[in-house]
Amino acid sequence: MTVWLFYTLLGLIQGFTEPIPISSSGHLVIFQELFNIDLPGLSFEVFVNFASLLAVLTIYRQDVVRLIMSLWTFLFKKDRSDETMVDVKFIGLLLVATVPAGVLGVLFGDWIGEVLGGVATVGYTLIITGLALWFIRNMRGNKGDGGITLRDAVLIGLAQAVALIPGISRSGATIVMAMLLGIKQESALRFSFFLFIPISLGTMILDGPTLFTNPDTRDLFGPLLLAFIASYVLTAISLKWFQHIMAKGELKYFSYYCWIAGLLVVLFLA
Fold first, then answer.
1. By the number of CB atoms within 10 A of the CB, which of 56, 103, 226, 251 ranks highest?
2. Judging by beta carbons within 10 Å of its beta carbon (0-12, 13-18, 19+), is residue 99 exposed, middle or buried?
3. Could you report the per-residue pLDDT of 223-259, keeping only the tens digit for each?
4. Tens digit of each residue's pLDDT (9 = 90 or more) over 94-115
5. How deeply is 35 buried, as exposed, middle or buried, from its count of CB atoms within 10 A (0-12, 13-18, 19+)?
6. CA angle 139, 143, 149 (to 5 degrees)
7. Pseudo-torsion of CA 205, 162, 125, 116, nearest 10°?
8. Are 165 and 128 a contacting pair, CB within 8 Å?
9. Nearest residue to 184 via CA among 140, 151, 147
10. Three-class SS of residue 215?
C-alpha cells in the first residue's frame, strides 16, 4: 500500500466515522489490525480529527456565529434578553460538560490507550455501543436547548469521558445520555457536536504541534494534506447524513452495524 493511499484511507475512515455513533478511534484500531500496520501516531489522529472539527464548524456555522454574537452582546453590551441568555447558558453548559473528558483524558489518557487500546476491547465496546443505541432508538424528548440543566451537562460530560475508551462512540455516548435525560433529538445532536469543539480544539493545541516539529512531516506533507482534506469532506457528508438519520429516528441501523462489526472483531481479530 502506497503512502498516499494509506494516508487517504485513514482520512476517509476518520472523516466518515467521526460524526456517526460507531467510534472513529475504534475503526482506526480495526484498520490497523486488519492491515497489520502501525498508525502514524497520536499527533496524526489529532490532525485529521481537527479536519473533522472544521467540518462540524462549517455545518453548524450559523449556530456558531449566533452563539458568539450572543456571548459578545452579553459581555460587552449587557444584553440580558431571553434569547441571549439561552445562548449564554448553552455555552456555559458546554464548558461544564467538557471538564470530565478533559480531566480524565489528561490523567488517564495514556493508561487507557495502553491497557484498553487493543482490538478485543474495540469489539466488545462496539457491541455495548450498539446496545445503548438500541435502547434509546424510539425515545423522543421534550427539552430543547433552553431546557438543558447543569445536571444534564455534567452527565453528558461523563458520558463523553467514557468514550475515551476505543470502541465507545463519542457522539453515540453523548447523544444516548442526552436522550435518556429527555432532550429532543435535534438539541441532543447539536449539544453533542458543539461539545466536540472544545475537546478537539484542546487536543490540537496540546498535541498538534508535535506533528509539525517531526522531521518526517516535511516529506509527508502531500499525504498529510490529502488525509486532512479527505477527513474534512467525509465528515461534512457523514454529519449531514447523520442529521437526516436522526430526524427520521432510524438509530437502530447503527445498532445493527455495531453488533455485526463488534461480533466479527471478537470472533476473528481478538
1. 251
2. middle
3. 889 999 999 999 999 999 999 999 888 999 999 999 9
4. 999 999 998 998 888 778 878 8
5. exposed
6. 120
7. 60
8. no
9. 140
10. coil
